[in-house]
């Protein structure tokens, strides 16, 4: 895997540095990307982008209707996530919005701009805590200014946010000691008490919550439900510990009933009878809260590989619960990217050819290799915990027994990656760090394709290739194992990237793609990935170590014939590749050695490689890179506004077609969602 965290992780883009994962090439070549405005807002550490939905028009009218209904269902659960993240997020958001939409005073003051920025951050994070770090935001305006805004806001716009609730809202915004962290997993603290998230309430302790679920768990059950996944756990007035289940008639009922309404319409236009059937199972689960139904739905969903349109809608990921039982609500709507999925299929079909021609010792080649296949999707709508910050790949379902018995769906989201790359194209990074104009041109033309192809080869072939010598278990490399494994998969990808076979198979049009990827890989491994390391620190993360190892080893071994070199110009350091074929043979040599290390379990040789090339940082170069990067002022986090789907109706009120629009106003989308898709009360 590349950049995967946790068992069934969502892969999240956390920086603007190029980073992709999963298996699947994306063309990235939408119809009209050239003059499309990708970035539409910037505040604090956030970029707000748009994504395109290429090929939406190639879908049938029925599929477009399906997407339209699912996209409505995807927005209806937004309030649920706010309440899950912290029990006062909804009244906080509504208070801020009431002020924002009625204020007619001076909007040029620093106070107002700080207020607006704070609201934009709350929208982006679905609450008062940073979406990534989980730390509570500190407003850059004072409580006195807030009081003056409240005084100027019509009472009726605040609804029931009056008196003590209004006092609490103010305290949540301004008191740094109140709900300081959304999730606190510090060892030794009561994580339930210390975390601001709303999955537990009524003074229940961590020990009580854990005891509650331990008692429920039947360790002999081979197909256990995901205990606690869809409920809040509270201690009631009588001191009893009870679950408040999230269902149409339970907690969050008003929002869930809306989701169900749209899913019922969606079921009537599903792609296949099987898809209609499991959509109805999902509806029954939402109506009852019965987790056995959710598992039945998940099994049918994971086995559906035929449908073009697909979706996720439910309580899915448990990162927001310090104890890992409860899942935040999320939704995505998507359809298969047939063109890009074709690439992964071709690679998979020729897996044996790649294995047979690999530069490793023949005894360590796999006699029978099976390429891993996965699909590439185009996302059409993001909701809940996937909005506005979104994953670039998804691997579901999460239930261990379903993964064991039925497998999982691994998807990469092509149009989101394409949007990240397109938005990054104008951020000045290439101009700052790429010396030769012709390399910058290559990067613009082939950068995304090269990066995606690297990912495909890494995931579909790299990890799956090779075999161990007899008697070797596979865990001999210990703490160096994951770095060396990532290096092995990367090298497999890099070696084949520059193989004419790829052009012959029609996977890439030209080996310029390989040149671009070699340029980017060497520059990143030798230099620019240091932007993610703090001054004075060494490299720790396995993927980063792997890249430093490969780039450093290849640089050193190609030094005699200057295959790659550092060039100093105008006081700045650049990495320049001079000989791509030499580079390819060096990648092959290192692949052979790392495969040998893995196959023989040669811990000492593995340790030596990683420690010598993968860990240490040149402090002078590091300082230079950090300074140049900081000057670019690139926001570390990005998220997206959604497209808007507009149905057209016939005389009888039936939907005949759906068109797509790309809004350009982040604030407008947030206010629209808050007014049209907000179904929960302030206290749930
Ligand atoms: Zn990997």
Bound molecules: zinc ion
- Proportion in β-strands: 5-15%
Number of helices: 25
Shape: globular
Low-confidence stretches: 1-31
Mean pLDDT across residues: 92
Helix content: 40-55%
Largest sheet: 6 strands, mixed
What is the strand and helix layout of this fold?
Layout: E1 10-12, E2 39-43, E3 46-50, H1 61-75, H2 78-85, H3 89-102, H4 110-125, H5 143-151, H6 163-174, H7 191-194, E4 200-201, H8 206-216, E5 231-235, E6 241-245, H9 253-267, H10 273-288, H11 291-303, E7 309-317, E8 328-336, H12 338-349, H13 351-356, E9 375-384, E10 391-396, H14 400-406, E11 409-413, H15 414-425, H16 429-433, H17 437-462, H18 481-497, H19 500-504, H20 512-526, H21 542-557, E12 564-569, E13 572-577, H22 580-600, H23 603-614, H24 619-632, E14 637-641, E15 644-649, E16 655-661, H25 666-676
Parallel strand pairs: 3-14, 4-5, 9-11
Antiparallel strand pairs: 1-10, 2-3, 5-6, 7-8, 8-9, 10-11, 12-13, 15-16
Helix pairs in contact: 1-9, 3-4, 3-6, 9-10, 10-11, 17-18, 17-20, 18-21, 18-22, 20-21, 21-22, 21-23
The structure holds zinc ion.
Zinc ion (ZN) binds at residues 1-2, 458, 463, 486, 489.
